[in-house]
Amino acid sequence: MKMSKILLPFLVFILIAVNPVQAKDMIVKEPPKSLSKYYPPESKEPKWIQQMHKMSAAFGGVFVNLKEKDFENVDKHADKLVEEYKKTSEMVPEWEEYFDIKAAEEFVAAAKTHDIAKAGKASGKLGKTCGKCHGDNEISVWTKFHWPSFHKIKVTDPVDEKEIEFDKYMKKISSSFKGVTVNFGEGQYGRAAKALKGFKSRYMELKSTCSKCHTTDDVKLFYVGKDAETAFSGLIKELNAEKPNPGNFWKNVGLLGKTGCKNCHLVHRPYSFIKEAWEAEDKK
Known about the structure:
The chain has 284 residues and is mainly α. It has two domains: 145 residues; 116 residues. The protein has ten helices and two strands. The two termini are 46 Å apart. The N terminus is likely disordered.
């Protein structure tokens, strides 16, 4: 098996796709500062996402009740939609252009005819305003306000017992891992075994670090669970053998990388990269 294939699980692949925006046209810009007042810590409640839910509920309520021929509630939901739509359009001045009050009013008028076909047709223009804003900003908003910043996390290194930033700690894990694989590839099995002790200590410490966000039993060991234990046991067994089996060794390296490193990176690193870029831009 080629080394590139063996280490493939440790590579990071980033794919961010949003419809209807084409990937080639997509720019992930930091949300305007004025949006921050609608999210913690400036606001006790996430008021912006609450507005999204209010509009979505009202819009959906129109069609649910049109199908059920409950026209009284059709009218109530239609009025609620335009009320919340207008309110939302005034919350973030930088995003005013995304809103089309006339389209909202035309949809309400169509809904109040109680003709579901007319309402469906009128919803298209209104829906485009929502889709355009979501396509331009949804990933940015989720990244900014719904994902924690790894740059604020501190970790105590179990090897030297010093507290360092999370990013630096991950580099130490990577360095420890290379100490294992490079020495093994050179046939220096004693050195590889010594490096493995440090690598395992640093890697498994993530149980504590990850549990700061992964708080429930069913998610706290997503990336540092039984598969990691199995992989480390297999690596230790091979390095303690009189003649280590390279196939078994690299198989366990792949297991650790695929179920731990790669899966964690696929979920978290795109958002971390975006936040890091924004923070660097803010410091200029």
